[in-house]
Design a protein that fits this description.
Chain lengths: 169, 203
């Protein structure tokens, strides 16, 4: 094998994450090639040094976690209105509430007499967007199910996003 | 002698909390709503979540906030935990998810506020018991700083592998990508870190 292809495998070789056959190949090559052996030695020393780093954990994280758990479970309990509040009625009630809310909103802010209705509606088009009932934090985040670990979470797009974030810092 | 041992049992159990409980008991009790069992899970795995969060967010404040939020979400969704993976992997994955989501949100908002540079914020504690230190304390500190300027996409892999000691499969599960990608990206990450280390005359 050529040096570049060996060097590409050194990182995984170091972690014992390549096939037995490749391990033997790399090992043989390292015994006979000085520049690859030097490369490997650098990698090994670096990862060993990294392993010595111990980060200091913040010491006071739990009380706030407990507080958030309590607050949110209280907030969730509040809308429970009784037995009739079945999954069947929920969307209907939500729809009725929305219609009622929209009517009340438009009634309270009646258009000037000379303003055409569709012009008025256009002027208030952001109504539906800005009064979303769902908190922002709930929209995109989906709690992962540990049985579905093959979902792709991290792809090239994620890398690009992080690069953007990185430059921004 | 026996009495002393017995008397100190209570203090000991407070200090080490529930050393006798195995993880699946703790998970089961948490699923039934036992917050103290979940607190024990938190103490055992806070560093797993925190390292991921620090790797992606790059500063202490955000890392702390994301870690806390991850545990709140985990508690709320613990019924979704089917024990296919370890709790350690699961909480790390939730943290990854949350952090990426947070960054996406910030990107959307495109906040113009000046954010602190993430470099140099975390101070390492050196393992004083280690007899064979390859690098002096000073050099370890420089390495820490170099790690701080490594792009997030690389830093998170280095933290998961070289500091937290996860296997490639666990890393793939945590960040949600293929095994092949972990392999190639970790190689890139180490090459980049090595380049920076050579520049700082660490290697
Ligand atoms: Zn070679």
């Amino acid at each position: 094998m050529e040096c570049p292809s060996i060097q590409e495998q050194l990182s995984a070789y170091l972690d014992g994450e390549i096939s037995l056959e490749d391990q033997v190949n790399v090992k043989c090559h390292l015994e006979s090639c000085e520049s690859c052996a030097r490369e490997y030695e650098q990698l090994r020393r670096m990862t060993q040094a990294l392993g010595q780093i111990r980060y200091q954990m913040p010491t006071d994280m739990w009380p706030q976690i407990q507080q958030r758990i309590t607050e949110r479970s209280l907030a969730r309990r509040r809308p429970r209105l009784g037995e009739w509040w079945t999954p069947f009625w929920r969307p209907l009630a939500a729809a009725a509430l929305l219609v009622f809310g929209a009517l009340a909103y438009f009634w309270l802010q009646q258009p000037a007499e000379d303003m055409p209705l569709d012009y008025y509606l256009e002027a208030h088009a952001d109504f539906a967007v800005t009064t979303s009932l769902i908190p922002d934090s709930m929209v995109a985040f989906v709690l992962p199910d540990d049985t579905a670990t093959d979902d792709v979470l991290w792809d090239d797009e994620t890398d690009l996003m992080l690069e953007w974030h990185f430059e921004d810092n | 002698m026996y009495a002393i041992l017995e008397a100190s049992t209570e203090n000991l159990s407070l200090m080490t909390r529930h050393p006798q409980c195995n993880e699946s008991d703790l998970v089961e009790r948490s699923q039934k709503g036992d917050v103290t069992a979940f607190e024990e899970l938190f103490h055992r795995h806070q560093s797993d979540a925190y390292h991921v969060a620090y790797g992606i967010m790059g500063n202490v404040e955000d890392a702390k906030d994301m870690t806390q939020e991850a545990f709140v979400r985990a508690y709320e969704g613990i019924s979704k935990f089917k024990r296919q993976a370890s709790f350690r992997t699961w909480i790390s994955r939730i943290t990854t998810n949350l952090c990426l989501d947070e960054i996406r949100k910030r990107k959307r908002r495109r906040t113009e506020s000046i954010e602190e540079h993430p470099v140099l914020e975390m101070k390492p504690i050196q393992d004083s018991s280690a007899l064979e230190k390859l690098l002096k304390d000073e050099q370890l500190e420089i390495l820490q700083q170099v790690l701080g300027i490594l792009p997030e996409k690389y830093r998170v892999l280095i933290l998961l592998r070289d500091i937290q000691g996860h296997s490639y499969q666990e890393i793939a599960d945590i960040v949600g990508c293929s095994l092949g990608r972990v392999k190639s990206r970790l190689h890139e990450a180490r090459q980049e870190l090595k380049r920076l280390c050579v520049k700082q005359q660490l290697l």
